[in-house]
Amino acid sequence: MSEQEKKTLEALDITKSENEKNKEEKNNYLEEGQFSETKKYDSMEEKKNDTDIDEIENSLQNDLKNAYIEIPDSLKPENIEKMLAGDTAEASSNADISETESDANVNASATIMDEQTTEEKQESGKKKRTFQWKKAHAYAAIAASLCIILGITAAINYSDLTGNQNMANNAANNSGSDASGKTSSSKNKSDAQDSTGKSSDVEETSKIASAEDYDQVYSYIKTESEDTSDSVGLYQNETAADTSQESSAANTSSAEGSASAKSTVTADTAASDAGYSDTNVREEGVGEADIVKTDGKYLYILQNNSEVRIVDIQQSEMQDVASIELEQNYTTSEIYVQDNKLFIFFTTTNTSEDKSIYDGGVYRESATVKTYDITDRSAPKEIGSVSQSGSYYSMRVVDGYIYLLSQFYVNTWQLQKDDLESYIPYVQGKAIPIANIYMPPYSQANQYMVVTSIDMNDPENVVDSKGIFSQGGTCYVSSSHIYMCDSVYADNASYTRTSIRKISFKDGKLSGVAQTKVWGTLNDSFSIDEYKGNLRLVTTVNASGGFIPWLAGSNARSTDTSAASTDNGSILQDSNALYILDEDLELLGKIEGLAKDETVYSARFMGDSGYFVTFRQTDPLFSVDLSDPENPKILDYLKIPGFSEYLHPYGDGQLLGIGMDADDNGITGGVKLSMFDISDPSNVAEAQTSLIDHVYSTDVGYNYKSVLIDTEKNLIGFSAYGDAQHYYIYGYDKDSGFTCLLDRKVNGSYGTLRGVYSGNTLYIIEGNAIEAFDLETFEKIDDIVL
Amino acid sequence: MHTCEKNTGDELVKRARGGDTKAFAKLYEGIYVDLYRFAFYMMRNAHDAEDVVSEAVISAFEHISNLKKASAFRSWMFTIVSNGCKKRLLSKECSQVELKETDLSAELNLEEEHDVHKALWSLTQEERMIVLMLVLGGYNSREVGEILEMNPITVRSKQKRALEKMRLLLGEEGGV
């Protein structure tokens, strides 16, 4: 470390600790509800409001603390101690069983692979583990797997799936079988439904239906709310909604879907051509907002939820040039910058007509995009804003149009039939036309994905808007379509399903295309991908009642049981599936019964190839040939310890995996980087790996936008947690493997970390501090505290 | 609200680091009720909550060498549990468990106070996590910010928003 760097480091640490101190002080005040920088009391009423909130907090505390919740015996301290100490006899005998089983099932090559990797892993970094610890692992793994099924290896799955695949290829299955592959000649609808929704006694159509009238919408909500009025329903539906919301928030969306397997190399180089990095996105060519953006000359940073800062980075010394402060009741989510315009996306919370709910006021959220002209970076000017019902979900930019997505949850406690706004999405203060509400392919719903398009050059007006009515789900957005994917857990089928609705967009115009259902649920938006008009997905199939199957479909949906008892049912049960649908969402090809008892952890479709990682105890990486959509083929699978939570193409014939290491019992260790050699998709190999010790999780699996990956500059940047939050930059070389170029411990661990570069400088943005590093030497150049 | 670990805590951590399960169990004893409640309210069912907590315990015991100070044990455990909840809710594998109504009533005593739970569950996952950490974990917004890797002011504003939402849903008396 140079003398100079030491000095700057010290300087920063001082400023930082002062800053921290300030923050702490502020927070102490905040705790007492007296003072806040971001919140000033304009009136006594507001103050009263806060007191009310404190009351709520208190009563909630009493309520939650005093509610009688029985703690499972297994979690009592004495039993935890026993578990950790390990009941030797039980643990080892159980471990023996699972080992025997797997040994018996593993084919020769897999065994070799397994042994190699196990040895490698044991040599590297696992020595410190005590004997006691191993036993604890074994015990715990067995305990945890009671809800699933243990001891089946990838080898047996592989033979299963090849068998199943053959069946599908033959297309000679009896029509009652769900494994019946659809032949290319027969394109009729019922066929597709047979293969996708076997036990469909609900009327299903492949066309997206618009709502007939407001009454119809109202009745769906009523049905839903009646269903949810008992707590079971509440659980089901809220779980579905929440999970999907979370998973989609975490995975809003980037892939190299439109690039072919070979040309994926270019996927990340677009940014380097421009000389600066852009947000890691789900779909190439489709812009996404984030908390930090750069145009190479300035950094745009969303801070404290309430302020956007603009920092000039054209000189080596950074300069804070402007700040846009937002109102207090905004929850600002993300920002986007393009052509001298800055777009701020946020959610506001209000009650209707500023009335209390006792005077007929209704609690409302609206998602808003506010546009600023930043031609003069030091003087941003507001030039327009668009609002719609719901909380901000995500956004995309394609061809100069913004597609704003919000999630509007109908609050059934405040549902009033004559108050349209309580159940129909509003855009710019007007109810969206009834024909623009797309009804779900099931008979009840309680929320909408509201999609609005805005011309970036006319940021005050809405071009088009739709309300996709659902029970909640994930959105995947390709360069020309929005796919609304709802997870269907408790319909009349034996297994979980995903309902897919396809909506096209072009120049701001939105229109429904088709809908269908497939078995299983998606891991995240990387599990679904559009390529040459076809849609490919990989799903994990479970019994629709989770792991309490006898509770599934409790509403006298007895048709289920027959479906569950069919042979193909056992193929589907707790396994994974791959589907290829054509542009009308009709089934082209599929592989079912993949990797039994494992769960998809990550997936990446790259042109004519697909890769996905499933995990139970070890981590099979599957390589799939998709060049013939009607005949997808598993080319290879690779069994390695641990799992990758995120896959990213990394140059010619290479696939980067970021995830966790795990031992034989599926217990995770540290963070693991893997580089897979995919130059021969039928012979995939783990070329290099690197373990980061003492680090137990990364942001990568939750939010792909937090990753900085650039193949041209050879940068792999991400944040991870160990003793504190760290930002890591790794480089990769075929021969020498991964090299840690930078390991920056972040002092305060406030806010979310992002790394971006412009020219030859890397910026790490950590809350209100920015540090600049030389991209060659990784020596620190500058820092600034905003 | 830091109920656990004073001087003896450091000793316990030291011993736990050396593989002493009793010491670990002692540390755990001070927090497990809140830890489980937290997981339960996040996951909304006993099975997942149990799994999350036991997995967290295993992971924590393995990585206890990462823990420098006993005083951080509680927040460290909550971090691991909250990550476990996030992960599990995301994975969907086990998150869609349906419970029998009787199960629920038994577990929650869902006779009187269920409105609060309903309101709690009407929050987004993130809001719920923040509220639970503040209310159940007894943390201040700075600590929650550290655990959730969020700015404390963000935490405070999200918490305010969440409680506001709950207040409206619960129909508490008071002006708006």
Keywords:
A: 786 residues; alpha+beta; 5-stranded mixed beta sheet; 5-stranded antiparallel beta sheet; 13 helices; globular; B: mainly alpha; 10 helices; disordered N terminus
Number of helices of chain A: 13
Beta-strand fraction estimate of chain B: under 5%
Helix content of chain A: 10-25%
**Chain-averaged pLDDT of chain A:** 70
- Main pleated sheet of chain B: none
Broad shape of chain B: globular
| Radius of gyration of chain A over all CA atoms, rounded | 27 Å
Q: Unreliable stretches of chain A, pLDDT < 50, 5 or more residues?
A: 5-48, 87-203, 228-272, 545-569
Order of helices and strands of chain B: HHHHHHHHHH
What does this structure look like?
Chain A is an alpha+beta fold and 786 residues long. Chain A contains 13 helices and 41 strands. In chain A, strand 7 (363-373) and strand 8 form a beta hairpin. Helices cover 69% and strands 0% of the residues of chain B. Chain B contains 10 helices and no strands. The interface between A and B is large, with 122 and 102 residues.
Sequence-ordered SSE layout with sheet pairings:
The complex is a heterodimer of chains A (786) and B (176).
Chain A: H1 3-32, H2 44-66, H3 77-85, H4 88-105, H5 108-123, H6 131-144, H7 154-170, H8 189-196, H9 214-229, H10 231-250, H11 269-274, E1 292-294, E2 298-303, E3 307-312, E4 319-325, E5 330-338, E6 341-351, E7 363-373, E8 381-389, E9 391-398, E10 401-409, E11 426-427, E12 430-431, E13 437-438, E14 447-455, E15 464-470, E16 473-477, E17 481-488, E18 497-506, E19 509-519, E20 521-522, E21 528-531, E22 534-541, H12 559-565, H13 567-572, E23 575-581, E24 587-594, E25 599-606, E26 609-615, E27 618-625, E28 633-641, E29 643-649, E30 654-662, E31 668-677, E32 685-692, E33 697-698, E34 708-710, E35 715-721, E36 725-733, E37 737-746, E38 753-758, E39 761-766, E40 769-774, E41 780-785
Parallel strand pairs in A: 13-15
Antiparallel strand pairs in A: 1-2, 2-3, 3-4, 5-6, 6-7, 7-8, 9-10, 10-14, 11-12, 14-15, 16-17, 17-18, 18-19, 20-22, 21-22, 22-23, 23-24, 25-26, 26-27, 27-28, 29-30, 30-31, 31-32, 33-35, 34-35, 35-36, 36-37, 38-39, 39-40, 40-41
Chain B: H1 7-17, H2 21-29, H3 32-43, H4 46-62, H5 73-91, H6 101-108, H7 114-121, H8 125-135, H9 141-148, H10 152-170
